[in-house]
Amino acid sequence: MATEQRPFQLVVFGASGFTGQFVTEEVAREQVDPERSSRLPWAVAGRSREKLQRVLEKAALKLGRPTLSSEVGIIICDIANPASLDEMAKQATVVLNCVGPYRFYGEPVIKACIENGASCIDISGEPQFLELMQLKYHEKAADKGVYIIGSSGFDSIPADLGVIYTRNKMNGTLTAVESFLTIHSGPEGLSIHDGTWKSAIYGFGDQSNLRKLRNASNLKPVPLIGPKLKRRWPVSYCRELKGYSIPFMGSDVSVVKRTQRYLYENLEESPVQYAAYITVGGITSVIKLMFAGLFFLFFVRFGIGRQLLIKFPWFFSFGYFSKQGPTQKQIDAASFTLTFFGQGYSQGIGTDKNKPNIKICTQVKGPEAGYVATPIAMVQAAMTLLNDASDLPEAGGVFTPGAAFSKTKLIDRLNKHGIEFSVISSSEV
């Protein structure tokens, strides 16, 4: 990483956006963390000085920090003005990029960061963007010694680091993991800002290009250790969690697979098979979600359908997504649990002809996923970049969170900040 002194250790780009304002608050909390032994000079960046000033004033009020605005730098830059992005990157050690959808707005920021020696962290859950950036920029970032780390929010730090945590806690060789995400809400229910909805629409509408990208990359298959992990039905009952589940359509599987490839090819670690699901409760919820899914998959195939999905998120998502996003009450009452069921082999047992003889169950639990856990994960990833340099991959490059942080203290940092990793059970079969 760039070691020369820069005015700001962290710059939050897109600080006045819906998620950016929560990331700004989280950096402000980190700035006064009692465990901090040094200053944390930081700035917010975006197009409008007035909006950025308002975000800082709002954070100051919420955190009881009347002098906050005077402690934080303001950088004016615009995604459409590459020279302004260069100026921002020159002033930062790490840029926290909160401007999405990343398929439209992410690449210019990465380009500016690499060319100007800044590392960059984003919270993209868009596999096509993430995989394309690795293909295009990994070597350039490595040449500059900077780290470009995508999917560092709820997508996909809990899943990616959760698999690594499960592997580290198993007394033997972990070969396969299934994860089940459960979202808990309060009496006022759930709501997600439509920025996430738009990213999903553009992603599913462009699946053919993702397939082409993967075919063009010509990657060798990662070896299969132990029996092949069977896919569950589109709707399946999980006995352990006593509820129905459906496949999780986020970026977790793509990110975990890329991490496992990196760990196998670069660190000679045994690769882990992975599948991700989300629990949906009882049969009524299953039917509701099936209808929403069918609507979505039909409309996303056509240009006019995508326009309708974007224009009426609340209607087409059956109330899960809205242009306003969640209220503070909804955020305060929400939380998540990500449960991992792993299997593998105890030490000395061959993986070729024997059945797996160890099972392990672990959990990652945390506060509301999109606007509390995501900022915590993103900011702690940044603090890890700043403080655990000797434990990062030797050269820079474009990495998944697991590839970048598997040897660092990121899991310890997350545990201290309310995203808790724990072993539920472990047994020989």
UniProtKB/TrEMBL annotation:
Keyword set includes Iron: no
Pfam family, one: Sacchrp_dh_NADP
All residue ranges annotated as the Saccharopine dehydrogenase NADP binding domain in the record: 11-149
GO-annotated biological processes: glycolipid biosynthetic process
Segments passing through the bilayer: 274-300
Record keywords: Membrane, Transmembrane, Transmembrane helix
SUPFAM superfamilies: NAD(P)-binding Rossmann-fold domains
Gene Ontology cellular component annotations, sorted alphabetically: lipid droplet; mitochondrion; plasma membrane
Keyword check for Ribonucleoprotein: no
Family to which this protein belongs: Belongs to the saccharopine dehydrogenase family.
Name recorded for this polypeptide: Saccharopine dehydrogenase-like oxidoreductase
Gene coding for it: SCCPDH
